[in-house]
Hints:
- By secondary structure, this protein is an alpha/beta fold.
- 38% of the residues lie in helices and 24% in strands.
- Strand 16 and strand 17 form a beta hairpin.
- The longest helix is centred in the last third of the chain and has 18 residues.
- It starts with 12 loop residues before the first helix and ends with a strand.
Amino acid sequence: MSTHLPTADAQDPDSTARTxxxxxxxxxxxxxxxxxxxxxxxxxxxxxxxxxxVPALRATRGDSPxxxxxxxxxxxxxxxxxxxxxxxxxxxxxxxxxxxxxxxELRASxxxxxxxxxxxxxWWIVSDPGCAVGGAGGIRGGGDADRSELVLGVGGASTTLxxxxxxxxxxxxxxLGTGSGIQALHAAQHATWxxxxxxxxxxxxxxxxxxxxxxxxxxxxxxxxLFEPVGEETYDLIVSNPPFVISPGARLxxxxxxxxxxxxxxxxxxxxxxxxxxxxxxxxxxxxxxxTGEEWQDRLRSWVPRGCDAWIVQREVQDVxxxxxxxxxxxxxxxxxxxxxxxxxxxxxxxFEARGTRAVGFGWITLRxxxxxTPSITVEEWPHPVEQPLGESVVGHFARQDYLRDxxxxxxxxxxxxxxxxxxxxxxxxxxxxxxxxxxLRQNRGMRRATTVxxxxxxxxxxxxxxxxxxxxxxxIAQLVGEDPVLLRDRTPATIRMLVEQGFLEPVxxxx
Length: 512
């Protein structure tokens, strides 16, 4: 297998200077996420994310530097040497291997995709050619790399995890299974020290390119599986977009974990606690089996290690046929011929049948090392749209769990609350009815939850502005509706807890 990749040696001043000049050329040509969208237009830009290149080819028929860069680095088309010189420091790119010369033409050795950082930074994610996005169209190309060791670039899973991750300043962060380095790139903005690991040495080299080209501090790169490369070292943040696909065998390193069923994700979760500092977070994407005769929620609760709180959200469920078809297409097996495709499809279904798997769930797992004797473990299904980034929502979730765990009902009734920002009320019932059949509170931020409450719960939430304790508000409501205040105080704490837990109400210090 040829392993030709560019170099970007952070220890070599000359290499660093060449990488800086390349980055400056990309910026000068507006080879950025915003510049790409403006050049291609919405439809062609969206098509590119689906690995469809024809609209982008039509949009780059001119000779501007930006069109040249798009053709070279995104569309993997050869470009005339004279045209490349107008867009890039060609000598630098040839010296470090970003470009390869073939007669009077140049081609890119890697895919370079503009990526916008959370604070408007202009970054670039490096990957193998034709592998910027996998998914329904199947990965294409890969240059001269062994297909089993391809390194993918930006995709929906990686951006989801980046938006989900808690972005608080930390001393040490670990990106486990770094791939193209996108999570390490994000972590480098708020972690003093970043370690990135991968089983695939090619991925480590590409992650280094992503960091260098984007102007980020280099990460400590280590080769190996799961936590093996870091031994007993501990971290304040662990992030992982692991090879979570539940597959028969381990054909493709970027997606197949090589363990049976969902054992890789389970092992990662269970071993994380020993590598987390107190108060630290481990956040990852995962797949899990829905096994006949077992509740999937119970399966995931059993993964959570001692001493950790957990928030697990199932975002999607696919039956085994849908799941197999998705990943067969991801690997391009639908183009391998009917006989090969059928044999590989059968192998997936045989694997699921042997394990009693009827469906596969996909979602997020967040652990926080709290050391609590009675840990908070929330396992829920939420397939609805959310507002990214969700890092602060994750922090808020665990803060609310701490509050509820430490607050009994008496303290709850003495506490002050305010209605969270962005909550609206919807009343459902026949037109003209005096009272609604039910009231729905809905969030417009974060998880965008909705919950049904009775008129007392709605009235209570609507009055909460932090000035009065909950008990006094309930007494006033009892007088208005003609209910015994003692009975109302007895039955309402459960509703208050639910509203706090889901983020509709926020505890506040007593005013005045």
